[in-house]
Give the backbone structure.
Amino acid sequence: MLDDALARIAEKPRKPESVVGALRKGLRTRLYERLADQGILRMEQGRVLGLFPSTRWPAVDSAHERQLRQALDDALVVGIDPQPRIGAIVSLLYAIKAVPKVVGSRESKKVVQARAKAIAEGAWAATAVRKAVEAVNAATVAAVAGAAAASGSGG
């Protein structure tokens, strides 16, 4: 998936906000399908209220999720040094301010956030993750500001 994204980015020079939008199209479904191919999820199609088509992606076996949550808990609550993969996930969760939503509430949010920050600052992918999230945030702010300026000047 990353190779595909890189190839799409390399097609022609574009602004970051247009690249993010292009890469985002259909990404969730492709990720779900990939997880289904690996046997982690399964696709269930049905209808809501008997009228509206609906697709669900329940876990085939929740062991993968339990293992990931346990590794995150070990790193953020227990204080065990994480493997690089878990460090990268913690860095991403920290960058998008989602650590307290993922890690249970039995620990203080401040303690968990502080541990996530320490991991993110030391993790091998932390700088790249932080820069990518900051670039997306900056592109979003610029797009909103540009749209507001355009709508305000047209009157």
Q: What stands out?
A: Residues 63-128 form one domain. Residues 126-153 form the longest helix (28 residues). The chain has two domains: 14-61, 63-128.
